[in-house]
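User: Hi! I'm working on a homework problem where we have to compare a predicted structure to a textbook description. Could you give me the structure for the chain below?
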Amino acid sequence: MAKQQKKENKTVISQIVIKSPQRKVFDVGEWRNALISADAGRVKRLFDMFEDLLIDGYLSDAFSKRKDAVTNSELTFQNNIGELNDEMMNIIDTLEFERLLNLIMDTIGWGRTGIEFDFSDGLKVYEIPKKHINLVNRSILINESDESGIAYKDDDHILILGEHRKYGLFMKTAPYVIWKRGGFGDWAQWLEIFGMPQRVGKYSMQDEGTRRILEQALAQAGSAPYIVIPKESEVETVNNTGSGSSSASYGDFRKACNEELLITMLGQTLTTIQGDKGARSLGEVHQKVEGSKNRADMRYVQRVLNQYVLPLFERYGLPVKGGKFIFPEASEQLKVSEIISLSKILPIPQSYLYDKYSIPAPTGEEPVAGSKQEKVTEEKQPEVEEQPAEDKPKKKLGDFFADAPTKERGNKSFINKLKEMLTGTRNLADNNKYGIDLEKLFQEALNEVYDNAKNEIEQPIVSKPLFTITNTAINTGIDEEFGPEFGKTNKEFINEFRKNNAVFSAFKNHKQTEDIIKLLTDDKGELISFRKFRKLALQVSKDYNEVWLQTEYNTAVKAARSAANYIKMQEAKDIYPNLEYIKTTASHPRELHLEWVGTILPIDHLWWQTHMPPSDWNCSCSVKQTDKDVTEVPEGDANPIFQNNPGETAEFIKIEETSYFKETKKEDRKKVEVIALDLFKEVLDEMNEKEKK
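Assistant: Happy to help. Predicted structure tokens:
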């Protein structure tokens, strides 16, 4: 075909004749033939094969992990003095730029990629089909079977990456996917023959009529295999007693193919599939291997952007002269001590440190940590008691405990553990004990929500990773408070307590999921970039998964303590039949709670069903058992959320009174409860399995 020239003001992509890929059953022989053909410059067969093999879930997911590590990372554009360029940062925060990053990453999988830029109406990025890229004569083929096409060498709108006879990681993974498909086919055949029960019909050798009737009856009696033989004969199935004697060998073969595929794509397996030996140290090694590949990918993308894309942007008037694209995560991470040393010789902006460590900048006269902070002892820590609702303005969701203290007196170890658990600063032993990774779980939730929006899939009513954050943290506190001795005789009661926590966690994170979903689009209703979405979502997470979770954790621990004490008090009520309301240990008590101090009523009195401490968020009031004379029933109602006796109901709060529940649509409440109970059953099953082991 004669060499064609690109027509002025006409994109190349609009001239290409795009056809569907050839889809069929491939074998390794065809892979080799396609590879030989590609070496000769004809890549159509090989790339059609790659596209078909990408249907494999393991392969597509493994490559997506490589891409996601780049697109989910912070990318900045800095000018020649190291300042961020706001105009370019806005361009980076677009879907078109995210598409550009994905196309650059395609080079690693396919061995080549083609990108056409269009600046006629903002930045537009188009993918040039890879089988239309001829690296030998540097042209874009109009038809996939052409020998030559539109030259791209001097075209300022086109970027082609790749080398002749380099076909990326998909060339290496193709045999494993092909073998796995074939193995699945053989496995299915094995199950068809040996997985269903065999029916044997016997007839007399002299009675031909009986044979025909028997065959007809067995044929009409279902699809299970059968044989019809004379009574005088025998049929014996002899099993292979070697290593491939059962269906397990097919499963092992499938597993081996998946492992080789993941090793080729990610360098390891444990971040995708669980190994036979679940040593945490081994998992961390595998995570480091994958992290090393991710940083290498970022450096590659960064170099492509700066070497090829940046000059192209500059030619079309974008403000990039003298600047450069930077992935901070692609560099070696500095330790705090190293930053302190560097600050003595380099002017490091405070904004960098705030962003790096996700620390909010202080405002006004707000006290700050460090050398400038006025030392406040545990005894001086203000514990502001919340005023009655009618004396305060209406609050938004989550503020129903915003004024409650976030420090728990006398239980500092629990708070430290939770704080370390949420900030990721705990040591290895603690991580094993609690089994929670806030950053990882929240990232999983964001990935799910964003991918659903991008692919127009219905969003979850409750995000499981978000549920796990709250549910696991609170369960950790109440389990430690109840303790093993109490658990031996009150297992069913504790499980009911956990169930209440599961329902609470589901309603809370239904609302958190909704709040995060609202951040997906801009004012025009268009999907924003993942980077911008993640930054906004982290602000939501700070409230839900740090500030509010701290208060919920404190309160659940106190409710568990109250419940355990109440059950023990019931055993001694013959001697000490009454309970006395004891003053809070907080330095700033709630006035309403002070009016109840000194109240003495029988342990089974109805007043305790609505006034048993904790009587509000982070309430530090308590009761003690006594044989003193009873007093009159005092006036005043507790916070409706806490009109509850945890020792009677096995509930740490009344969920239906919380803002989480009330601000859930009525038609969704039952759905949330069902999901909560399903997730609770999963958690309970996991705990039971651990106990058995």
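For your comparison, note the following. Residues 562-673 form one domain. The first strand starts at residue 76 and ends at 78. Good luck with the assignment!
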